[in-house]
Write a structure and sequence with these properties.
Layout (H helix, E strand, L loop, with lengths): L6 E6 L7 E6 L4 E4 L4 E4 L11 E4 L5 E5 L2 E5 L11 E2 L15 H7 L1 H8 L6 E2 L4 E2 L16 E6 L1 H18 L3 E5 H4 L10 E7 L5 H12 L3 E6 L5 H5 L3 E3 L12 H21 L3 H22 L2 H9 L6 E6 L4 H15 L2 E6 L16 E6 L5 H13 L3 E6 L4 H4 L4 E4 L8 H19 L18
Parallel strand pairs: 11-12, 11-13, 13-14, 14-15, 16-17, 16-18, 18-19, 19-20
Antiparallel strand pairs: 1-2, 2-6, 3-4, 3-5, 5-8, 6-7, 9-10
Helix pairs in contact: 2-7, 2-8, 3-7, 3-10, 7-8, 7-13, 8-13, 9-13, 10-13
This protein binds 5-amino-5-deoxy-1-O-phosphono-D-mannitol (M6R).
Length: 461
Amino acid sequence: MYLEGTYGLVVIFNDQTDLLMGARNGSPLVVGVGDGEMFLASDAAAFIGLSRQAIFLEDGELVIIRKNSYRTVNQQNLEIKKEIEEIDIEEKSAGKGDFPHFLLKEIFEQPESITRALGSGGRLIKEYGTAKLGGLNLEKRDFFDINHIRIIGMGTAYYAGMVGASCIESLARIPVTVSDASELKLSNPIITRDTLYLAVSQSGETADTIAAVKEIQNRGGRVLGIVNSVGSTLARMTEGGVYIHAGREVSVASTKVFTAQVTVLFLLALLIGRMRDISLSKGKRLVEEVMTIPEKLRSILMMNEEIKAIAATCTGAESVLFLSRGINHAVALEGALKLKEITYIHAEGFSAGWLKHGPLALVSKGTPCVFIAVEDNTFEKTIGNIQEVKARQGRIILITDSDNPEVHSLADDLIIIPKTDPVLSPILTVVPLQLFSYYIAELLGRDIDRPRNLAKSVTTE
Ligand code: M6R
């Protein structure tokens, strides 16, 4: 008998309690090797408190497990030798600590997760104003041949990719496109030698992203992974990449992973940028600036009571709009995704320039419109859009780094965040949006860590 399709399968036997069989094709399956005990799970994080020794099965492989032994075979029942790998996952991220939900804990962990994404500074070279990313498996000279970057991902990973694209284009002056992985794999994609493909994923198990990577690789494209989950399928199938080291993310809604993905994409942009376009002094300034981000994040997290009060006034909203421009356009989209995902309130994100092309018709008296306006080259135009919404009596919730009282006076609710370089601003602007959605969901009594109809990793297409 031959089994077709996508599966991660475990078989138990009524009459043989010492026997387990596992098989995978397309879905993850990991064996944990313990002391007189063995484990099978879809993610090594499931048994991390019990064993740190793991064997990662590949597609088409089977494992036969007994209490003290295991045997791995292929579909022809031929024995295959698999290495045991040591898993490097932080165990302390397994519990909620003093927080009522994993989501809130993960939002508050961001100063530490960003620090880890920066390798506690070890991924930065201060004196050369650049970054050091060991796992890329690329020589410096290889970067001269890259004329295009294509980032692929789904959901929040896609939006992190959009931020990364703006960052790379701004610092490295290489054109970047961002692709929805579920569309790319079916689109007969054009794969070129001088394009670098980046697959962004928290779990490393998203079926759409994996299928897109396979399609690119089958056509000879070079794919690197920007992945959180150590040893995951994507981390293993790509030719190199960077772990973001955000730590285990339990809540279905992604928060600390978004900011860590953006941080790593910034590092990549800085690395390529310093080879191409940006000066030593600008590189040094960016290195210094990124090191200040964890502290700036802490100061935003201290505004949680203010943000909770704003959230309390939006629990009855039928729909919320999120608007911004430039690099923060993707943050507006991410803010809307977070709100719909955990509160079930309808939300849409747009570039503020898009407003007059349709969405402005949605604005009536009291419609909550969340604007992100940082003082970059898009600022004046965004302020103009705020005035347009105000003229329609929309309610303005403004997240800004501006200290201009005239700008402040446009807002019904105001959240002032610290200033940073515009390319780093999304790491700060997204945090009030995460807290805003969290507190609305809490007040509405939603199942915050496990929103209805959704799974943490989407392992089927
Ligand atoms: O594991 P991945 O990063 O590949 O997952 C991609 C999306 O499924 C994920 O980001 C999803 O959109 C989140 N639940 C959003 O919070």
